[in-house]
Known about the structure:
Layout: E1 2-8, E2 11-17, H1 23-29, E3 48-51, E4 54-57, E5 70-72, H2 85-92, H3 102-115, H4 121-128, H5 139-159
Parallel strand pairs: 1-5
Antiparallel strand pairs: 1-2, 3-4, 3-5
Amino acid sequence: MIQITVNVNGEDFDVDVMPELTLLDLLRELGFHSVKKGCGEGDCGACGVILDGIYCKSCLVLAMQADGRSVLTVESMGNVDEPHPLQKAFVDEGAVQCGYCIPSMLLAADALLSENEDPTDDEIKEALDGNLCRCTGYVKQINAVKKAAKVLREEENDNE
Ligand code: FES
Ligand code: FES
């Protein structure tokens, strides 16, 4: 066992992990069940998190590689009472059905908008590529990201 410290959504967790444990399994053991376990092989995208500011698939990262690093899950974005504009837009646009793919997709979209405040459809598709959705067909999710981007730009203009 290896002792590591991982910061998840601003809280430090000191844990002993087996060398082969993935970050995905560690996060779920810690109770972050919004990080979904789909394929476990990097194909479905359900396990996405932000690791030190970079969106990644947590099934492809060993827990011990996250030692001393910062992880953000969808809980860091907002909640039912105070949703992030992306969360609100996904609901308003009907982009959420079963919801299995949504936490990871929201994080991928958030990572995109943090670097590109007005992405094109193709840029959104590229950012969400690798996040498989069995329910919606992606059009509503692309529309939701565009809608949230507009809201965020307007908020920024209001703050200037
Ligand atoms: S569970 Fe990680 S990509 Fe499918
Ligand atoms: S909403 Fe069901 S898999 Fe995407």
